[in-house]
């Protein structure tokens, strides 16, 4: 069993998905299959066959609470396993693959398949009128300062659970089967990444960072803090607390508290119900 699969979940962001597929096709190693999981978005199927590596599109419905990000990622990884791939790469729909990202992940995972590996991600500025030039991505390399950023050729092991993120990572097939994937009780935004990191470490599966697998996050506007996801953060944060004994995403919760949106009652964070449109009270931060 051998092969490399890239797994991407998508809801909207069609242009980002098109550019991602072009970046995968331009790499020094093209994945054997690109598994795209469409979350309540039938139009994704058309986008995923326009060009790039071989694509297989799956569909998943959303529950009332929000997008099933954890379940969709598990669905895509399970399909990649059935395809016979030994290297599974999770790549967020907003990310462009650097020219050596797939090859770097494949080499790293095959050298050490018992570790879950992440690569540095650079957040790109808004694209120029003609879009991002894939030939000059590496010149823009400026990895996110809150995550490890080993140089090409370097690997760091022993990362804490809180640093795992689903933007870009890779895992061997046997290790993914062993870990059981994401907890699908998480629905909507927030918490599922850190939960998986905790679960991996609890099972004795290490987290590492490789400098040979670099990705580039395409620009889109974001809220800081993510006020439009306030209810998700509270619901998923409470689930995480029940599973692991502490609240995640405390930085966001504290920012919500300063805005009068939530308050802390003992070990609990609760919504301040005042009839206000929470999203309208958020400030837009553009990056």
TrEMBL record:
Q: Write out the GO MF terms.
A: glycosyltransferase activity
What UniProt keywords are attached to this protein's entry?
Answer: Glycosyltransferase, Transferase
Pathway-wise, it operates in: Cell wall biogenesis; cell wall polysaccharide biosynthesis
Cross-referenced SUPFAM superfamilies: Nucleotide-diphospho-sugar transferases (SSF53448)
Q: Which InterPro entries match?
A: Nucleotide-diphossugar_trans (IPR029044)
* Entry keyword Transferase: yes
The answer, when asked if Glycosyltransferase is one of the entry's keywords, is: yes
| The organism's place on the tree of life at top rank | Bacteria
| Coiled coil spans | none
Q: Which PANTHER family match?
A: GALACTOFURANOSYLTRANSFERASE GLFT2, RHAMNOSYLTRANSFERASE WBBL
Task: Provide the family line.
Answer: Belongs to the glycosyltransferase 2 family.
Q: What is this protein called?
A: GT2 family glycosyltransferase
Write down the species: Nocardioides marinus
């Amino acid at each position: 069993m051998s092969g490399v699969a890239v797994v991407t979940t998508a809801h909207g962001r069609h242009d980002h998905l098109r550019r991602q597929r072009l970046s995968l096709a331009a790499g020094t190693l093209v994945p054997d299959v690109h598994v795209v999981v469409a979350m309540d978005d039938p139009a994704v199927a058309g986008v995923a066959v326009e060009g790039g590596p071989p694509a297989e599109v799956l569909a998943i419905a959303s529950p009332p609470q929000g997008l099933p990000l954890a379940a969709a990622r598990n669905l895509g990884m399970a399909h990649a396993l059935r395809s016979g791939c030994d290297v599974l790469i999770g790549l967020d729909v907003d990310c462009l693959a650097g020219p050596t990202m797939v090859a770097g992940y494949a080499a790293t995972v095959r050298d050490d398949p018992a570790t879950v590996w992440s690569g540095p991600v650079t957040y790109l500025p808004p694209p120029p009128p003609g879009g991002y030039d894939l030939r000059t991505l590496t010149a823009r390399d400026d990895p996110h300062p809150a995550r490890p950023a080993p140089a090409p050729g370097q690997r760091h092991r022993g990362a804490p659970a809180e640093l795992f993120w689903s933007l870009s990572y890779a895992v061997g097939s046997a290790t993914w089967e062993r870990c059981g994937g994401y907890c699908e009780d998480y629905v909507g935004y927030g918490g599922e990444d850190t939960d998986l990191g905790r679960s991996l470490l609890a099972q004795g599966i290490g987290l590492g960072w490789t400098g040979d697998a670099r990705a580039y996050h395409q620009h889109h506007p974001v809220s800081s803090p993510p006020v439009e996801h306030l209810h998700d953060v509270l619901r998923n944060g409470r689930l995480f607390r029940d599973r692991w004994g502490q609240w995640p995403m405390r930085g966001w919760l504290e920012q919500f508290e300063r805005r009068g949106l939530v308050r802390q009652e003992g070990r609990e964070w609760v919504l301040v119900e005042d009839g206000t449109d929470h999203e309208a009270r958020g400030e837009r931060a553009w990056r």
